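Record type: ASSEMBLY
Status: queued
Input:
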Amino acid sequence: MAWTFLTTRGLDGLAARWAPRLLAVSALLLVAGLYGGLVLAPTDEEQGEAYRIIYVHVPAAWLSLYGYVTMAGLGAVALIWRIRVAEVLMAAAAPVGAAFTALALATGSIWGKPMWGTWWVWDARLTSELILLFLYIGVMALRAAAEDPRAGARAAAILALAGVVNVPIVHFSVEWWNTLHQGPTVTRLAAPAIHPAMLVPLLLMAAAFMVYHAGAVLLRARCLLAREPAAVLAEEAA
Amino acid sequence: MSGGAAGAFAALVRRDLLLAWRRRGDRLVPLAFFVMVTALFPLGVSPERAVLATLAPGVVWVGAVLATLLGMDTLFRSDLEDGTLEQMLLSPLPAPVLVLAKVLAHWLVTGLPLVLAGPVLAGALHLPAPAQPVLVAGLLLGTPALSLVGAVGASLTVGLRRGGMLLPVLLLPLYVPVLTFGSGAVAAAAAGLPAAGHLYALGAILALAATLAPWAAAAGLRISVA
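Status: finished
Output:
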């Protein structure tokens, strides 16, 4: 019983039950995080009110990496154990992660205009995030180009794993090249260089985005399963 | 068995080189492309010596990356069309070894000419002479890595009808580290700074690609052929 979610039918049932719940929890966290971030959190001494975009920008940037690693992990599961459900979930995770990447780039650009005086700089961190978006696009394009959805998903999984090499480069680029982008303020081993009144809403937003990611991936997986030819599902059931 | 794999490796390299020699016109297209793309920059940007010298590291490396990309689609295509690829995968020989042989032959035919043409084109763009050895060293380390990573992309798209169109979208993001370290090495050398760090990074990328890419490409071929 516990392992029924590994069949497509089981996944469909699981997603039907959990996607709405996860999205509802995400909405609650989002309201709490936005209230804390936009109303309760104090104004920044240097950046004024404009800093408040971090409550969208930073969690989106985290989720862009989290989404890629999750997608590649699902791809590895799909390739190694040949689990059909992992293929569907990987295919569903690609557009969600790509959306977070696009959101991180867009909000970063909006934040960059008042802070750095420009919409875009060819800074290592920004460029790496852009390349992450290209990687997502490649994975989605390869999957879409294949005539057989299963072969497409498996090919996309290999590409996603190849792209994982890029993800550490994105993460460590701040340390590798000295850049305009500010260094990490939350994930330092010592005490974070951010006040708890600002940190708590940020973590609430990150939790909201993460739960949304899970809910959106399950919902998209249901859509992908519904689009499958009936013959494939019948073959699975037999 | 290992003797069999080594024999097959040598035989496959010889076969691919012979095939390339019989159709040598085709295989020179990436080189011609490399030369022409580079020639567009003085025409499109400026013939000024100072401007070209600053652009030279990036232009030569971008040209080499695009020329490699152009040649990648041919790596497995003809073998897939005439059924050779299927026979290779059905044979008891380890598929990653066969992939490595094909990539080596392909690099000797398309990559090595780029390495040789690189300093000539960089000279035409007035790259300072002390930076030339660094450019050659970087291309020698970088272009095999580009071919190896390209083999993964080629293996995934060879079965698709519009695979050639898709290949740049898949590969260019993966080529970025090689491009940045390669042109970074030349730019550092041109500015009189040590370039060894960049070259070590390129060497590390080549070692990583040589270790992992043949397996990934073999897995990709199994998906494309099935």
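Annotation: The interface with chain B takes residues 79, 131, 134-135, 137-138, 141-142, 145-146, 151, 154-155, 158-159, 161-163, 165-166, 169 of chain A (CB under 8 Å).
Annotation: Chain A has one domain: 52-183+194-237.
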